[in-house]
Amino acid sequence: MSSYFFGLHFSEKVSRQELQEKINSLPGIKQGPEGPDHYWAGGVHLVFHDEDLEPMIRDIEKYTGQVSGRYSLGVGVHDLTQDSTNQMLEVILALTPTHDFVAIYQSESLMHWQKEGQLKVDSTALSQQTRDYLRARRPCRIADISQLLEG
């Protein structure tokens, strides 16, 4: 089964408890059978990670200026349809109305992030349909990653 996951790294100002409360408020959220840190919102899988994130925290700060907390939240789907991707994006947007966060794919590709309320989306990393979907739901700046990182 193919999977498509983003690792969400939130500002250190967002506590794990605060994020947990936000997850619990999602419509249809259920505890996952995989363990206490797993949740399902329809076909969207959410899982907390507390492994050593120091290298990732340093890279996020270096490239985006954001200092991340000591946990991450994997948010993903287990099929690669645009509908599933849109469901995943809805969960991400519901969890991040104002919080600063960084979304990373496969632990290496910076896909989109939000800082001080401004959502930035890498035009080279996401499909046109996904970019359009994000743009329709939240004001955002979409550009090549090099332009986004400059300012």
Provide the gyration radius in Å: 14 Å
**Which structural category do the helix and sheet elements fall into?**
alpha+beta
The gross shape turns out to be globular
Instruction: Provide the helix percentage.
Output: 25-40%
Low-confidence stretches: none
Write down how many β-strands occur, each being a DSSP E stretch of 2 or more residues. 9
Please give the largest β-sheet: 9 strands, mixed
- Write down the domain tally: 1
Which strand-content bin applies to the residues?
25-35%
The side-by-side strand order for the widest beta sheet comes to 2-3-4-5-1-6-7-8-9
Mean pLDDT: 86
Please report the number of helical segments: 5
The arrangement of helices and strands along the chain is EHEEEHEHEEEHEH
Please identify, by name, the CATH architecture: 2-Layer Sandwich
CATH class: Alpha Beta
CATH topology: Alpha-Beta Plaits
Q: Measure the end-to-end span.
A: 38 Å
